[in-house]
Amino acid sequence: MSLPTFARARELDAHLAPSRRSGQRIALVPTMGNLHTGHYSLVAIARKHADVVVASVFVNPTQFGPHEDFARYPRTPEADAAGLAASGCDALFMPGVEEMYPYGPANTVRVSVPGFDMLEGALRPGHFDGVATVVSKLFNLVRPDVAVFGRKDYQQLLVIKRLTRDLAYPIDIVEAPTLREASGLAMSSRNQYLDPAARERAAVIYATLQHMREGLKQGLAFAEIEAKADAALRAASLVPDYASIRRADDLAEPVQGKRDPLIALIAARLATTRLIDNLLLAE
Length: 283
Description:
Helices cover about 40% and strands about 20% of the residues. By secondary structure, it is α/β, with parallel strands linked by helices. The protein folds into 2 domains: about 5-175, HUPs (Rossmann fold); about 190-280, Pantoate--beta-alanine Ligase, Chain: A,domain 2 (2-Layer Sandwich). Strand 2, helix 2 and strand 3 (about 50-55) form a beta-alpha-beta unit. The mean pLDDT is about 95.
């Protein structure tokens, strides 16, 4: 059976109207497409929290910087629709740029969430404004009761949680665990940029996160743990943007000896591919 697919929000809204009238809960799984097992796991999680699951596929231009991979970001709409149908998704929202940005991306009203100008926010200026803007638009257009986001993009998850609470969206945000390849490499659409040898080498990211957790258990200072992580990544020919321990609730720098929930986060480049991952240090 083909998946009901809509390019216009008003058509999706008409499709969902009977479900709304009957009191069914609607979940949204926002994606940029080129879907893999990790994305499909979000659909399964959404199904546990709602009666109707809608996925969106939209490669959002406002969250890419001028020298990032927007033009070459992989787009596989037919495969995405087939995979979503097989995973039990009920509807697909696949808008064009003109639907999401009627005045054009450069002239859109922008949503900015303060307090996240560290890590990804520092390295990718404007990125989270683009994320917050497109997520706000998707929330307004789809009007879900639940939205599911993966933990792999941890800083993004915190931005969306803050956005949802501060703008009083009546939406439950559900976070989903990171799915990994057999090597430990976090599943990502950008992994396909890597050849098999590079994929194996990229597994050092997750191994390094685990070593960071062990260093914390051994009582090492944060700075020493981070320095060892940086060295391990460079030894595997990755170029780290950061290997950092932060407070899990707001990504502020932690205080040594204070018992805050902590998270380790890594961003590193392997050739021209940038990869991110994280590990909650209580896990």
